[in-house]
Design goal:
Elements (H helix, E strand, L loop, with lengths): L2 H25 L4 H23 L6 E2 L4 E2 L1 H24 L4
Antiparallel strand pairs: 1-2
Helix pairs in contact: 1-2, 1-3, 2-3
Length: 97
């Protein structure tokens, strides 16, 4: 794995961990709507940071089976990291839908 891929993975991991371990418990609690609202900002921040670095560069990122641009790489990696942590948080907080 190259450095750009690793930096995006680490950025997404840090954003998700800070969100679910610090921000969401304080601001959203167990409200699904609030978690979703704040998650738009968290994921948007990830896209902003990555986009500022790679937009228009033509750099391809390796997703094991295919190469893709920065947007799709960030989206897929963000989802892969966030889903298990989200499930854990929802069970722990008994999130109401």
């Amino acid at each position: 794995m190259e450095i750009p891929e690793l930096s995006i993975i680490l950025l997404n991991l840090v954003i998700i961990l800070v969100s679910y371990l610090s921000i969401y418990p304080k601001l959203a609690g167990n409200s699904f709507n609030k978690i979703s609202f704040y998650d738009l900002f968290a994921s948007g921040f990830a896209f902003l940071v990555v986009g500022l670095n790679y937009w228009g560069t033509g750099h391809e990122f390796n997703l094991l089976v295919l190469n893709t641009n920065w947007f799709w790489f960030t989206l897929v990696i963000y989802a892969i990291i966030e889903i298990p942590i989200m499930i854990w948080y929802f069970k722990k907080q008994k999130v109401k839908f």
